[in-house]
Design goal:
By secondary structure, the chain is mostly helical. It folds into 2 domains: 111 residues, no CATH class; 96 residues, Serine Threonine Protein Phosphatase 5, Tetratricopeptide repeat (Alpha Horseshoe), CATH 1.25.40.10. 65% of the residues lie in helices and 5% in strands. The protein is built from 11 helices and 2 strands; from the N terminus they run H-H-H-E-E-H-H-H-H-H-H-H-H. Strands 1-2 form a two-stranded antiparallel sheet. Strand 1 and strand 2 form a beta hairpin. Helix 4 packs antiparallel against helix 5 and helix 7 runs antiparallel to helix 8. The N and C termini lie far apart (157 Å).
Length: 252
């Protein structure tokens, strides 16, 4: 018989090739770069990220100022129109709170009062003005603490209205028997804008408040300034009599 030779498997000395992971070489920075170019290359990702954020912010600001805010301003003015009409008719509670049904170009709707306009459109000039109107409404209806609260919210720059708002806080304090506080606000109102309408008005009110507090010298100072600087104003028409009275009361 033919001997059967046992075949032994031949072990290969060759090992399976292993794939080596080769990192991509980092891009070197051009040594010739200087100044901003060098800074940019070193901080490219951060700069691009920040730059993108700034671009988004600029777009948001432009949209807010050019589109959103003007539209809000228009809406606020439309909403406050009826409240202003009621205010001029001395319907202060309705002007303040709104709630009645009115006809508009868009049909019948419930009108907003000054409070609601101020709260819903607080970013607009009209919403800010609504704070002033709300404060005056509360003053006229005898709610003096609320009047002060709303008048202090008004931040307008109109010389006349801003002076009246400050002076109205003085009026509310007078009604609350806070004479010293009233005097402070009358003086602020008088100095807020030197004009022939509000300045003599609040100089005279300050003088009267000083009289009530028993400070006749200060009252005299207010009346004499009024007589000297605003002699043609309505408040100065009978100021000589006021001057004579405080001089007599204070033995001045």
């Amino acid at each position: 018989m033919t001997d059967l030779k046992e075949e032994n498997p031949v072990e290969s000395n060759e090992s399976n090739p292993v794939e080596e992971q080769v990192e991509a070489p980092k891009k070197s920075i051009d040594p010739s770069l200087q100044g901003f170019q060098l800074i940019y290359e070193k901080n490219k990702k951060l700069i691009n990220y920040v730059g993108g954020g700034i671009a988004v912010l600029i777009v948001a600001i432009v949209y807010f100022k050019m589109f959103y805010l003007p539209e809000q301003e228009k809406e606020a003015a439309n909403e406050m129109y009826m409240a202003e009409n009621l205010f001029e008719k001395d319907s202060f509670n309705l002007a303040l709170k709104g709630g009645i049904m009115v006809m508009t170009p868009d049909g019948q709707k419930q009108m907003m009062g000054f409070e609601q306009v101020a709260e819903n459109y607080n970013l607009t000039k009209t919403g800010n003005l609504a704070n002033y109107y709300a404060g005056i409404c509360y003053l006229r209806t005898g709610k003096f603490e609320q009047a002060i609260e709303w008048l202090k919210k008004y931040e307008g720059k109109d010389e006349i209205i801003s002076s009246i708002a400050i002076g109205a806080i003085g009026d509310a304090n007078m009604e609350l028997n806070k004479t010293d506080e009233a005097i402070n606000y009358y003086l602020k109102a008088a100095e807020n804008s030197n004009n022939t309408f509000t300045t003599p008005l609040y100089l005279k009110k300050a003088g009267f408040a000083y009289e009530l507090s028993g400070n006749y010298q200060k009252a005299l100072d207010m009346y004499e300034r009024l007589n000297k600087e605003y002699a043609r104003s309505e408040e100065a028409r009978e100021i000589s009599r006021e001057i004579a009275r405080v001089k007599a009361l204070g033995n001045l």
